[in-house]
Design a protein that fits this description.
The chain is mostly beta strands. 3% of the residues lie in helices and 38% in strands. It has a single domain (18-328), classed as TolB, C-terminal domain (Neuraminidase).
Length: 343
């Protein structure tokens, strides 16, 4: 396969388009402007976790946080805009078993060590974006390139060689590729599960890129293949769906199940070993001003019976910002083995 240049550079990217604005308006109008006096769980002390979010419009930097024992134990920031003026949006992020963190920021993807050294960097080419990056072992990553057409790349980060390249279908090819994908991850079976955010479906592709399963759903932000074979989806208008292979909904959750909580747009969703579900509720900027954010819940942990067992609203001391991605570090499993952790 052809080598891909792994360098320390960034690239120009297109701005957010009208399609995203319209979809965020619809989702943000569903936000509930209230919150319980006391939130369930132990706040920052409930879990150890890696946390980040897209587009914190209030700050000049975007930050990854590691929380342990109820405190921020580590953080790493990137500029909110790269030298060419393109917005950086922290999205997919995973701490590996060796302590390094693989993350993307729209204008590229990187791996950073605990002492904050970047050991590889993949810049997004002009006209493309990177919102999804998944470690495959300690020396490979699966990167989704939003573009015309979108690409799925398996890259050896030690050699810089692209070991696999697939073209992903995208029905809508005009305009910005910004909304094509947020999560495309390899499953334990070696297939690829893609949340087609713009094309309103979740599809599974085999090793050759042929579609072998699909489920129609409005605006899927993330999709996770569970160990029971079902698929867990965070969809637009803040819906969580667990669907089986026949496309039947076997479990769901929406803000109507938590009327006392101020929620916005559900993004990453994961399933814990104990059966609970964890979801990030992201606050859109520019539509809901940042002064609307405090009091909203950034993370929910939900039992199978739809009881909220943990709600995190952390807007000061420390201010974690909007939530797009959370990895619970106290979960069993090896995060760089696809499907070992259900996120």
């Amino acid at each position: 396969m052809k080598p891909i240049l792994v360098v320390f550079a960034l690239a120009l990217l297109p701005v957010i388009g009208r399609a995203q604005t319209n979809s965020l308006v619809m989702a943000a109008t569903n936000a509930i402007a209230c919150a319980p006096a006391e939130l369930p769980g132990r706040g920052l002390a409930q879990h150890s976790f890696l946390y980040t979010g897209e587009a914190d419009s209030r700050n000049k930097q975007q930050t990854l946080f590691v929380v342990r024992d109820g405190k921020v134990a580590w953080s790493y920031s990137v500029p909110s805009y790269d030298p060419d003026g393109a917005m950086e949006e922290l999205g997919d992020a995973t701490m590996l078993s060796n302590g390094n963190i693989v993350f993307c920021r729209k204008v590229g993807a990187s791996e950073v060590t605990p002492d904050k050294q970047i050991i590889w960097n993949l810049p997004a080419a002009s006209g493309t974006e990177i919102h999804s990056v998944q470690p495959i072992g300690l020396d490979r990553v699966l990167v989704t390139i939003n573009g015309h057409p979108p690409k799925l790349l398996l890259i050896n980060t030690k050699t810089g060689v692209t070991e696999k390249e697939l073209t992903l279908p995208a029905a809508r090819t005009n305009g910005s590729p910004h909304l094509q994908f947020r999560r495309v991850h390899q499953t334990v079976a070696g297939t690829y599960l893609a949340a087609h955010l713009l094309d309103n479906k979740v599809s599974e592709y085999d090793a050759q890129g042929q579609e072998i399963w699909t489920y129609a759903v409005s605006g899927p932000w993330s999709a996770t293949r569970l160990k029971n074979g079902n698929t867990l989806i965070a969809a637009s208008r803040s819906r969580i769906l667990e669907v089986n292979r026949d496309g039947n909904v076997v479990w769901d959750f929406s803000p109507t199940n938590a009327p006392d909580y101020k929620l916005f747009i559900f993004q990453e969703v994961s399933r814990l070993a104990n059966g609970n579900t964890v979801v990030c509720s992201w606050c859109p900027g520019g539509i809901r001003k940042s002064n609307d954010w405090p009091g909203s819940v950034q993370v929910l942990e939900i039992s199978p019976e739809k009881k909220i067992v943990w709600a995190l609203s952390q807007w000061k001391d420390p201010d974690l910002g909007p939530a797009s991605s959370i990895q619970l570090l106290d979960e069993p499993g090896t995060p760089e083995i696809p499907g070992d952790v259900q996120r």
